[in-house]
Amino acid sequence: MTQTLLLLPGDGIGPEVIEQAVRVAEKVAPDLALEEGLIGGISYDQLGTPLSDETLEKAKASSAVLLGAVGGPKWSDVARDKRPEAGLLNIRKGLDTYANLRPALCFSALADASALKRELVEGLDIMIVRELVGGVYFGQPKGIETLPDGTRRGFDNAEYTTPEIHRITRVAFDIAKGRGNYDRKWGGVCSVEKSNVMDSGLLWKEEVQAIYDAELKDMGVPLHHMLADACAMQLVREPKGFDVILADNLFGDILSDEASMLTGSIGMLPSASLSDAGKPGLYEPVHGSAPDIAGQGKANPFAAILSLEMALRWSLGRIEAADEVTRAVSTALEKGARTGDLGGDFTTAQMGDAVLAEL
Amino acid sequence: MTQTLLLLPGDGIGPEVIEQAVRVAEKVAPDLALEEGLIGGISYDQLGTPLSDETLEKAKASSAVLLGAVGGPKWSDVARDKRPEAGLLNIRKGLDTYANLRPALCFSALADASALKRELVEGLDIMIVRELVGGVYFGQPKGIETLPDGTRRGFDNAEYTTPEIHRITRVAFDIAKGRGNYDRKWGGVCSVEKSNVMDSGLLWKEEVQAIYDAELKDMGVPLHHMLADACAMQLVREPKGFDVILADNLFGDILSDEASMLTGSIGMLPSASLSDAGKPGLYEPVHGSAPDIAGQGKANPFAAILSLEMALRWSLGRIEAADEVTRAVSTALEKGARTGDLGGDFTTAQMGDAVLAEL
Ligand SMILES: CC(C)[C@H](C(=O)O)[C@@H](O)C(=O)O
Ligand SMILES: CC(C)[C@H](C(=O)O)[C@@H](O)C(=O)O
Hints:
Two copies of one chain form a homodimer.
Chain A: E1 4-10, H1 14-28, E2 33-36, H2 41-47, H3 53-61, E3 64-69, H4 84-95, E4 99-105, H5 118-121, E5 125-131, E6 143-146, E7 152-161, H6 162-179, E8 186-193, H7 199-216, E9 223-227, H8 228-237, E10 242-247, H9 249-262, E11 270-274, E12 281-285, H10 302-314, H11 319-334, H12 348-356
Parallel strand pairs in A: 1-2, 1-3, 3-12, 5-10, 8-9, 8-10
Antiparallel strand pairs in A: 4-5, 4-11, 6-7, 11-12
Helix pairs in contact in A: 1-10, 1-12, 6-7, 8-9, 10-11, 11-12
The complex binds 3-isopropylmalic acid (2 copies).
């Protein structure tokens, strides 16, 4: 059966970086059927919704989805459920991509770009496994109500259930097993919550421990528990002590952004959002739509190209092609390919050329 | 009327560091009446509760409260509402200390201790203003329930109201006004939330803006809004761009811990938790009870001494005494006073001696 990759370039620099990823895809996986769809602000502008049923159906029918970026100041006055970001939340929920994998990798050619001292980040290689379709992002009830005295109350339900916690914990352990970095200080899986103040956090901690004791212990992967505030600290103090960080939707959002910035290479970082085996995964750069540089050919397409690489690896089963892309990106980097964010002056297309030259 | 300072040394290194702060208090404010009370694990052990009514009443009747630290592994199996941390949450709520001020200061003598490159943190001086008695910490309902199929659901209500947001916003603006760092990238007040996914966050953003437009605009203090994940990033990338960060209870917890670690001097950082004018404030080091080094005379008492300094300044109106303490700590540091956390071998008492010698 033909495999299909659905491209959702989105807004801002999204289309530019996806264009380069497409060149790479056409080279390493020429038989892959590429389709295209709308998401985000461009979808809102054309269809009045940031995610149409048509796009969601196309996504569900595809083997994998490669997304650029969504959002921009243009849509800041749009009602929140119609804003570009809502398209992102809806496609995550619609595809039930509950496992968001965000590597925070420090490419050694780029270690000097980090805010941290070189010795703290050189060789950094953390994987954040973030629960992506639950918690305070989607819990009900949520809303804003006006009280009798005219003041207002805003509320969100931060909630998790046993099955939600178990399934994401299994993913974290599978990944930690494949990495095998048990000798690090918090090697294996480090589960993060605020169990000292949140009941959903206490449930998180207890159920991670319960599924570990019942089912995962024999894998030999160590399990650590850490409070989210302590994790935010330790990510700065001793980032190389971490291996796989397992977090809920909200803490995962914040901690993965912090971790990605430590690497000094945020323009380089891909992400994968996975559902159960056999269902399409959603792949996207960690960076946003960067409206300030959109359309200028300055954006770094490596995060998009590495997102393609993750799609090849995790959804399309094309491990060799994925390895080839990784190698090509590394070599291009070693040979000096650098956009502005990395201190160079390559254009987006020249970065693509540099990778293609190594394939 | 005699002013009273209630000492709540608590657990772990709490008593050791408070002891040194007391020596300083006796020197710079000899007429201050010092009282003592129990909180945390020691209170649980003696009274079966981490915060007795007696301690809370004493606290309400005092001019200010100086707390050491609470908690430790000894109490990890205690039910959560009896754990040492519950004592802390209860005294905050009981005193209605809704404004938690957490400076993140990089002492230039210590800039090399930071994980960040020196140029990024030298001279760093951020103030985090965290809402301390609302949000997901205290919102109702919260709980863990067992569902018919035997699985469980944990939930917490993240909520804010207009008055809660307005009062903390006023504090942030007052503080920013006193600092006057408007030329920084996010100078003035930078309000942080996740308004793109949380309704309580959207209310936060709207109500900060509303009280600014209605009442605070004329102060001339700039207002910025930033998403919490972006803030976690920018704190690493460009910490000196911040001035006053205004955040809710949960984001304030995480971001202030991240920011404090950037300074490389977490053993040096004090905090103040304030209620309305005329009511007692609660002062405590940012660091925890450090059970691993408790009782060894190794703990750095400067955060406790600087917490006393904040009490003198904010609750006791003794600005000169406060200035004198600040100067003495700076000089002691310049002359080389360093505990282990700062790369030296001073004992806790020797650090106290070094400060007293300058008073
Ligand atoms: C755009 C926003 C809704 C989103 C999130 O909070 O999940 C983003 O920050 C991310 O991490 O992908
Ligand atoms: C001990 C804990 C309940 C507390 C909090 O989360 O507020 C602590 O982390 C703090 O920041 O003072």
